[in-house]
Amino acid sequence: MFDLDRWREIFQSINKNRLRSVMSGFTVAFAILLFTLLFGIVSGLSNSFKGAFVDDAQNSMFVRVWKTSKPYKGLQTGRRIQLKNKDFNYVKDEYEDKIQHLTARIYKSVSISYKNKSDNYRLRAVHPDHQFLEKTIMDEGRYINERDIKERAKVLVIGRLVKQDLFGEKPALGKRVNVSGISYKIIGIFSDDGGDNEERQTYMPVTTAQMIYGNNDHISQINIGYDPKLSLDQAIAFGNKMERDLRKKLGIHPDDQSALSVRNMAEANKGIGTFMLALYFIVIFVGSGTLIAGIIGISNIMIFVIKERTKEFGIRKALGAKPSSIIGMVVQESVLITTIAGYLGLSLGTYILSLIGDSLEKYFIKDPSVSPGIVIGATIVLILSGLIAGYVPAKRAAGIKPIVALRAD
After folding, report:
1. Whole-prediction pTM value?
2. Alpha-carbon separation of residue 324 from 162, 235, 271, 328 (angstroms)
């Protein structure tokens, strides 16, 4: 029940001992300020890691090949490894139960023109599943489908900035453009969270590119989206097995890292997860230590204050005040000071993070902030801190006999 008289006494006590109240609050405010800044910086690092892979599915694997650097089974060093459709089909059939999405990639640089406008763009020839692995956002039209693959259709899906370069504000969907001397129909326009470079890409069916650029079955890369139900360890094991199998199939030495690589996002995610977990533990350890120091500081000050008010407590008890009322008054004062100081520290820390956030990007810290969960947790910690800091000395003071309290100096 709200006791107005008690709150008046608490505010009178705080007003009478301003320096003590400020010093009590400062220790807690500083602890929460430091805690907020540390968590904000760690959160910024986490955002940077996530942003680095924002335009790729988190369950992606990328298979690429180059030249061999080691001889193997009579085959010489420097041999160029070439992925082909049969390798793509091997991966598709061999690991069907572990794959959610699968696409090949062929890279080209092409000139695209429309009427009097022309520019050079990067081209990726892909399968339909590429849309999900690249997290492509379709703004207009559609993506490449299986019919395009089967019919080797001369169709293009262009990025938002390609459309802007060639068509400006005019519609581009359904129009035909000239790609290095060949007419293609635009069937879709996309955007991508990866930024300008990604939005100046163009896509065409992989079979069309194979027919036009070399009339062969060569591919540059195989992209895989493993089953998201796999744990990180299972996904890593799957990637390692597939790499060993492909090395054997392509005649590559098991230790030749230059000839073939399987970049597995599961490994990156696990490494980032471990690193971030370690950072959070460090922050919790340092922040908790600072907070404990703040609690000890305010507790010591409360002990000094209670000692000054020993006679007052003795008079209260002599007049019939219960020990619980004395404890309650001291605890309320302690909680009030701690909560206000903690809120100021939290607000100041949040303000500083917002103020310096942009300047921290060069240190790989993006959008440092404190999550609502941390704010709620900090609030609970503040209340508990105030209870602990006030209860222990108040309990001791309330237990003193009135006659002893009245004789205290």
Report:
1. 0.69
2. 75, 59, 53, 6
142: left (phi over 0), alpha (psi -120 to 50) or beta: beta
* Interatomic CA distance for residues 180 and 308, integer angstroms: 90
Distance of CA 163 to the CA centre of its chain: 31
32 closest CA partner among 346, 355, 388: 346
pLDDT digits (tens, 9 = 90+) for 212-267: 998 899 999 999 999 999 999 999 999 999 999 999 999 999 989 889 999 998 88
Tell me the residue ranges of DSSP E strands in 255-381: 260-264
How far apart CA 362 and CA 160 sit, in angstroms, is 28
For residues 247 and 70, the answer to whether their CB atoms sit within 8 Å is no
**C-alpha triplet 68, 245, 250: angle, nearest 5°:** 35
For residue range 301-331, what is the model confidence (pLDDT) as tens digits? 777 767 776 677 777 777 777 777 777 777 7
Q: Which amino acid is at 236?
A: I
